[in-house]
Design brief:
CATH architecture of the largest domain: 3-Layer(aba) Sandwich
Number of strands: 9
CATH superfamily of the largest domain: Vaccinia Virus protein VP39
Order of helices and strands: HHHHHEEHEHEHEEHHEHEE
Shape: elongated
Radius of gyration: 21 Å
Distance between the termini: 62 Å
CATH topology of the largest domain: Rossmann fold
Strand order of the largest sheet: 5-4-3-6-7-9-8
Mean pLDDT: 93
Largest sheet: 7 strands, mixed
């Protein structure tokens, strides 16, 4: 079969197996396999697949039909118009997370700024911010070595490695070697899915993405509580904290901000769902030494 026929056949196969956007998936997998952009498949429509290519394509399609995320199969995810390397074991960036970057950029004053990104994953937030603001520096923290390595590689890929520092550790503990550093903003997309909701997740999330990057304890807010509680010790007065949450958690998450915070609010994503809670530090009620 030629390329167009192969895509049509593959899309039909994926559709029968319940894969959403089957043609896009079929095009993406074929383009990845033979080194073409999706649109180039149609400008090379009469190209024939070799027997080896056809077998490899079938293998990819079978994995996708079984639930393996497209991004793990191609090794790439898009975020803010940028391509990010991803690998199994590291959380895949979602388009809805772009709202946390856009609101951060809106809240930052012009010029230089120091940002802390907690739980950076493949570095999509850290790199996205650094690419958008050439005077901004980001400290990206993750406790997973693979995530840290991907963040470094993605920062290099987009020319911002000099302004994205990657540290290993559990949230703020990674900063123990820089006790006097305060940030203009802290951002985080932590795991926030409640444990009880795990079985209801799509198979490609539940069975393929790392549970530690998705599940946030009994009510989903275990890490959100820690991030908000300890943030004042690492923020400049007037600094911003932005944390991604689920729509159903917005009221409880906003209640976690104490009297040292001002302008506590939430932002919706493009689907109209509450996605990010934000607040500004009005005063530093705790010192670095008191953070637990």
């Amino acid at each position: 079969m030629n390329l167009v026929e192969s895509v049509a056949d593959a899309a039909s196969y994926l559709e029968k197996h319940g894969v959403s956007s089957p043609r896009l998936n079929a095009e993406s997998l074929l383009g990845y396999l033979i080194g073409l952009e999706r649109l180039e498949i149609y400008t090379h429509y009469d190209r024939l697949l070799s027997a080896r290519e056809a077998d490899d394509y079938k293998a990819l399609l079978k994995k996708r039909a079984g639930g393996c995320p497209l991004q793990y199969l191609t090794g790439e995810a898009r975020f803010m118009g940028l391509a990010f390397e991803v690998r199994p074991g590291v959380f895949i960036p979602r388009p809805e997370t772009e709202v946390i970057v856009s609101k951060l950029l809106e809240g930052l004053p012009p010029g230089s700024a120091d940002i802390l990104d907690l739980g950076t994953g493949c570095g999509n937030i850290a790199v996205g911010v650094a690419v958008s603001r050439p005077l901004v520096s980001v400290v990206a923290v993750d406790n997973d070595p693979l995530a840290g390595e991907l963040c470094r590689r993605n920062a290099e890929r987009h020319g911002v490695a000099a302004r994205v520092e990657v540290l290993a550790g559990d949230l703020y503990e990674a900063l123990s070697g820089m006790p006097s550093r305060l940030f203009d903003a802290i951002v985080s997309n932590p795991p926030y899915i409640p444990e009880f909701a795990r079985e209801g997740l799509p198979v490609e999330v539940r069975d393929f993405e790392p549970a530690g990057a998705i599940l946030g304890g009994p009510d989903g807010l275990d890490l959100v509580r820690r991030i908000i509680r300890d943030a004042p010790a690492y923020l400049k007065v007037g600094g911003l904290l932005l944390v991604e949450i689920d729509d159903g958690q917005v009221e409880e998450a906003m209640d976690l901000f104490g009297g040292e915070w001002e302008e506590v609010r939430y932002h919706e994503d493009l689907t109209g769902r509450a996605r990010v809670v934000e607040a500004g530090l009005a005063s530093r009620a705790v010192s670095r030494g008191w953070a637990q």
